[in-house]
Each structure stands twice: as C-alpha cells, then as structure tokens.
Design goal:
Length: 81
C-alpha cells in the first residue's frame, strides 16, 4: 500500500465526506469512519489489482485476447502448427 498520486483525490473526497458527517455525529467518530474507509478502499483496490495481474499472467494476445502461457498464445500459436 504505497502512496500514489491518485490517493490525493481519494483523501480529498474522504475529507469532504467527513465534513458532511460532522453535523450528524461527533468529529472524532466521523474521522474514525473516514480512516477506516480509506484503508478499506486501499485494501480492496490492492486485492483487485493483484487478482487482475494473476489472471493476466504474462500478458494478453493482441489478436484473439486470450491469456499468454509460456510466451505463446494457446489459440493463435497452436493453430498455426
């Protein structure tokens, strides 16, 4: 979970959400909710990115769009042989 440029947008959005929560609850509770939301979003995005990279593997074939296995496309390379 390293800090990236787009995290600034997330932080600003969560701060605005916290400001919106303060009329309904104490500021400390609003801050705790926003902090939990930040780490929850970061965790979810990290797991999603990890699953996508695991699914793609070495890459995607530019012709058929299937997953490349052992530097060969299972659809395009084997049909040419």
């Amino acid at each position: 979970m390293k800090f990236q440029k787009r995290d600034v947008v997330l932080i600003v959005g969560l701060l605005l959400f916290m400001i919106g929560l303060t009329p309904f609850m104490a500021p400390i509770y609003a801050a705790l909710i926003v902090i939990l939301m930040y780490f929850g979003i970061k965790f979810y995005v990290g797991k999603k990115k990890q699953s996508i990279s695991r699914e793609i593997g070495e890459g995607i074939c530019m012709e058929c769009g299937s997953k490349i296995i052992e530097k060969k496309c299972p659809n395009c390379d084997y049909s040419k042989e």
